[in-house]
Amino acid sequence: MERVAIVAPSRVLTNVLRRVGDAGLVELSTPADASLETVARAAVVRDEVAALAGWMPAPTVPELAGRLAALGGAVVTISRPRGVEAPSLLRAGGLRGSLSPVVSTYGTVPYRDIDPTPLAAGAYVVMFGMMFGDAGHGVMLLVAAAVLYRAHRTGRQGHAGRPGALARFGRGWPFALGAGVTSILFGLAYGEFFGPTGLVPVLWLAPLARPLQLLLAALGVGALLLGAAYALGVVNRWREGGWPVALYSSAGIAGAALFTGTGLAVAGWYTGLDLLALAGGLLAATGLVLAFTGFLADAGGGPSGVAQAVMRLFDVVVRLGANLVSFARLAAFGLTHAAIGSIVWVGTTALWAGRPVAAVVVFVVGNALAFTIEALVVGVQALRLEYYELFSRLFQAEGRPFRPWRLPPTSGEARSCPSGSGEACRP
């Protein structure tokens, strides 16, 4: 994103602004839907030269400069003011645009931060699949993804007639596709195909038979995701405020050291490796000292600052444990899904010998209810883990979206003058 100035002779400013509004590439200080007269009045005029400052994507500067040159205008790159955050421009089209709601519904990614959209979408579908592990239900999700993709394509291409009712949800097809794939993979690992039907072998573990192992695996997945969130958080803190912010922030190096050190200490204690446990304890203590220093600096020092820093440090430690334990829900909802599937299958087999029609009804209706209810619950839980456990470490500030100024296409103001028309085209 570049800070630019739109410069033009004041006598052709209106025509130049028409071109700028038609292009829709520049965010000005005026509202995005401001009228042409409002924007023109906001220009700074000196010696018959008018200028307006704004933001625009760097790759589009030459294109707009060429369009304005024919009218006597220019696009000049200027320095960014200190303390002013550039607007964030997230990709709205293509596959990445379809994945962006998983982040944009939480907030706008600050300009300096890493856009975690692909990683967040990947983490989401992995967590979904672990809680919704059934190969048969995964196939149903793939069918739903195909329907949503068709609706998305139909709505986007603007075929004759109004788009179908599913068109508004069509952009969600990548999530349905990813969730279907991961549900199939975990279903094969669990030996679940519309419940424990025996149609697929157990490649890893049966959730109801080995719940403790599933719980430990869920905590392991949570630890990996938290570690990745801390790594991205360190990079974001560095970009936001340099090495001091990255070093002392509880969502930066200090928090990452505490998290990693605690993990190493627990691993050393569990395996009996005293040296590993000692190294982990020292690393965790270093993270606590760094975080305390950062909190104390924020509080301004003094006895009250020390008390505030101690309380905030205690909160960090408690939340760290709570965040990791929160990933136990990956196992809990995986067990719930397997239990519902088992109940439906037991009921089906019990009725099959004497009442086969009732058995089929129980199997179909039971799986339909399990699919509908569990898919909704699991989808919400995966999103909750993303927002509260992961994104809270990635983002410490709220960005603002890039909102370019555009002339309404139906407005008479939006009629652009042909190249070289000069003053003759002015209203």
UniProtKB/TrEMBL annotation:
Belongs to the V-ATPase 116 kDa subunit family. It is a multi-pass membrane protein. This is ATPase. It is found in: Membrane. GO terms for cellular component: proton-transporting V-type ATPase, V0 domain; vacuolar proton-transporting V-type ATPase complex. One of its GO terms (biological process) is vacuolar acidification. The chain crosses the membrane at residues 121-151, 172-191, 211-233, 245-270, 276-299, 320-345, 357-383. One of its GO terms (molecular function) is proton-transporting ATPase activity, rotational mechanism. The lineage of its organism: Bacteria, Bacillati, Actinomycetota, Actinomycetes, Streptosporangiales.
